[in-house]
Amino acid sequence: MTQRQHPKMALICPRVEARRTPGGEEEVTLHLSAPEMPDLTLKTPPPSAPTEQIRVWRTFGEAVDMGREVALWLEEYLGEEGFRLFYMSPHHKPRELLADGEWRDLCSEGEVSGFSDLSPVLMISEASLKRLNSHLDTHLPMQRFRPNIVISNCQPHQEDEWKELRIGDTLLRNIKPCHRCKVTTVNHEKGEFAGQEPLETLRKYRLYEMVHQKVDKRFGINPLFGTNFGVLKTGNLAVGDTVSIV
C-alpha cells in the first residue's frame, strides 16, 4: 500500500514520542491523525511480541502487526478493507538489500532497510530542487519528493556524485540514483494527484541515459531526482551537521 494507489495517505500525519521509563527502557508512542478522523495513539509492542514475515517488492523481513484498532482506522479513512499497520524495530530482522534480484549488483553485504522501496536514506539537495523549480510554472516544495536528508550549499544534483559520506557519526554509501514515480505528482496539501508535473519536466533533462550517457533499462522512463544511500555505520544525525565526503 502506497500513495501510488492511495494518494490520501499523504494527509495522514504521524507523530512519534519517545521517553525513558523509570526502569530505563525506551517507550515509544505513535500518534496518527487525518482529516475527519479521530486521533489514534498506539504504543509500540515489546521485543517479545510475535512477528510476521513482511515483503516489500522483492525482499522480506520481520515485523509486528499493530492490531485491529489501527487497521479499522485505516480502512475507514481510505475507504477500503484489508489494511494492516506493521512495526519493525531494531530487534527485528530487516530486509537485506542483497536479496533484491533487480538491484543486487549495486548493493553491498550488510546493507539493510525497513519499509522503504530499497534504501533507508533518500538524499536531495536544495540546489536540485531550485533547478527543477526554475523550469516549472508552479514551484514545488521539497515535501513532494519525501527525502529524509536534505543538503544545502552544493551544486544541483551534486548528491549524485558522492560515493561515501560522513554526517555526524554516521557513514553513508551511494547505492543508486532515485528514479521517480507518480507519487511525486501527489499534492500533499490535498491528498490527490495533481497532473503530470514534475515528471513531465524532469523527463526533459533527468532520464538515466541523459545523465549517465548510457542505457540501463531498469530505470525506464522514470526520471532521476535524489540519491538512494545505504548505511555503512549507524549513528546520530542533527539539523545543521556538516557533510563530509569520504
Automatic annotation (TrEMBL):
Q: Name one GO molecular function term.
A: pyridoxal phosphate binding
Entry-linked InterPro entries: MoCF_Sase_C, MOCOS_middle, Pyrv_Knase-like_insert_dom_sf
Which Pfam families would you find in this protein's record? MOSC (PF03473), MOSC_N (PF03476)
Residue span(s) of domain MOSC = 92-246
Show the PROSITE patterns listed in the entry.
Answer: MOSC (PS51340)
> What PANTHER family does this protein map onto?
MITOCHONDRIAL AMIDOXIME REDUCING COMPONENT 1, MOLYBDOPTERIN COFACTOR SULFURASE MOSC
What name does this protein carry? Mitochondrial amidoxime-reducing component 1
Organism encoding this protein: Geodia barretti (Barrett's horny sponge)
The major lineage groups are:
Eukaryota, Metazoa, Porifera, Demospongiae, Heteroscleromorpha
